[in-house]
Design goal:
The complex is a heterodimer. By secondary structure, chain A is mainly β. Chain A contains no helices and 11 strands. In chain A, a hairpin with a 6-residue loop joins strand 4 and strand 5. The model of chain A has no long low-confidence stretch (mean pLDDT about 95). The termini of chain B are far apart. In chain B, about 0% of the residues lie in helices and about 50% in strands. Classes of the chains: A mainly beta, B mainly beta.
Chain lengths: ~110, ~120
Amino acid sequence: GQNIDQPTEMTATEGAIVQINCTYQTSGFNGLFWYQQHAGEAPTFLSYNVLDGLEEKGRFSSFLSRSKGYSYLLLKELQMKDSASYLCAVTDSNYQLIWGAGTKLIIKP
Amino acid sequence: DVKVTQSSRYLVKRTGEKVFLECVQDMDHENMFWYRQDPGLGLRLIYFSYDVKMKEKGDIPEGYSVSREKKERFSLILESASTNQTSMYLCASSPYTDSQNTEAFFGQGTRLTVV
């Protein structure tokens, strides 16, 4: 079957760095997305990786290793507003999106 | 900005009622999706549509149907609501593209409670 694994919850301190991991087993691979979802709100797009390596976008970076079926989202200089759930999703060989359950990130002062 | 609008943020319905959830997007996107989101589970695809009057079953279509009479509108129908359909329902749209990077835009969600 197809599976996306990510930690259920993480806690970090304001101003610090946090890495949220995502591992996947899917039938084929056509890209990996990270979305941010604040409580009670819609998910919003953060990043997309289809080739191995690191994609940097301001305080957020996303890394992909296709051979390992692994990605991470790196958040630097954490702010209180970064408290949210972070969803990992993979596009499979049929271009269907397979979603992880999301990681709830709690930022403490 | 792309806007995906769901008709209700919160709904409370009785078991056995027929429920309509409406979704409208204003960016002329070809693709539209209905998901449900439950604690501890990923987004699960109920139905999707790649064109007007076209629909495809997702992973959990049982107990649901959809309608897409116009390109901008995609409706989710619960034929006879049951308590296990209490959930957050999210609508999304995306453009048709040859690129693999097809970002989905989500509505605010409808929290449905069936009592």
